[in-house]
């Protein structure tokens, strides 16, 4: 009786009237492309965190922490040569930050801090002045400040509870830019837009949208991931031209794709995923997809053309049972998933069914399994 109730629910799902599809959403060009030359740069530095409450590095396992502390104190005029320094409130850390494009001297940067020794926690610590270098080994910023730690580590005599990672933290606005990256953007005579997800259709739409907006052939599609802009025909600066281009709306061509996360049991389906004629038996579940296309003829003596209309049917049921619920024609994979949910199919079994259908060539989409 329980199976019969599931099948009744599945049949009612099939006859439910779906809402009319809305117009395809559009996005701005700036959200799908990167401009050549306008990029971020990664910075890294080695520093010392002080002020820890007995949760710092140990000298035995992290001897470099003692060496760094000795060197820092000597630079400050404190002679500690020959002294036995074994503080437990100091930790060696790596400091990372991202230098945005066109960052100016004095600008603030967010900083991430991570322990490289055996410190138990960075909570309550303060990062001492740390130079941050780029890939060319030049110092572009300096970081210093109190560390904000989101993780927590509580230990008692007979128990220990840890949430998050207390050996990493952040310093909001903890770095100051000391060196600018020289780049004269307004002297450019051409620009290159690089698509973050290369696609022939999307690149062609970007070219058409820009040319229609300016009424001249200023954009040229080089390949599915690149659109070139000729700036010589404009009277305004390249920065002004790019400001006008990046907010133009564009309809992005989304590929048919299925993403399966087996750990969480999440299945995400693209809008254009289609299925063909197929029959599958998995465990005690049977699935059958049948296509019966219909030819639509034009009226006599008209200029119309004959059109083949797709008609599909999906049958889902239990092996060896008479009770089979049939979905409406023109079913989609999302309706198939809904039918499998109604039969109580687990996400793991559902993922196996989708993979098998893809292997058989019945699903026309990219399949990504994580």
TrEMBL record:
The keyword Signal applies. Pfam families: FlgI. Its main location: other. Keywords: Bacterial flagellum, Cell projection, Cilium, Flagellum, Periplasm, Signal. The keyword Signal applies. Residues 1-25 form the signal peptide. It is found in: Bacterial flagellum basal body. Belongs to the FlgI family. The basal body constitutes a major portion of the flagellar organelle and consists of four rings (L,P,S, and M) mounted on a central rod. Assembles around the rod to form the L-ring and probably protects the motor/basal body from shearing forces during rotation. This is Flagellar P-ring protein. The gene is flgI.
